Amino acid sequence: MGKKKRGTQEAATMTEPVAVESTVDNLRGNLEEIKTYEGVIGYILRNSTSATIDLKDPTKIIDYAILSSSSVDASQELSELFDLGDVKKIILEGKEVKILSLTIDENKVSIFTEKNVDQEKILKRIRST
User: Fold this and answer.
1) Residue 40 belongs to a domain with what CATH number?
2) What is the domain range of residue 80?
3) Number of domains in the chain
4) How far is CA 110 from CA 20, 70, 82, in A?
């Protein structure tokens, strides 16, 4: 009988732990940076397990939360009604305030700004998540 060679297996060992940041952590970091932009009033970040609300005027938290949720729900209903497909982003413009709402993975984000703020700058930053 012939001799059989045994194969050797090597396992790589890591000397340092690998840090894995979740999308939510990256998103929160980007939102914290966006909040420092001139004219940004604040943001709401929510998913199935948590919600983060950071507004300059805490007395309006409930108003902004209802507005955010209602606008996202209404856009989804309109999209289904008119068979428009998935909603990528929503921009609501009022007399003095704009709201940019979008979904990133399972996270719903609404960013509240003064009317003159450049939404494209915010979109570029938020999409770098």
Assistant:
1) 3.30.450.30
2) 2-127
3) 1
4) 25, 11, 23
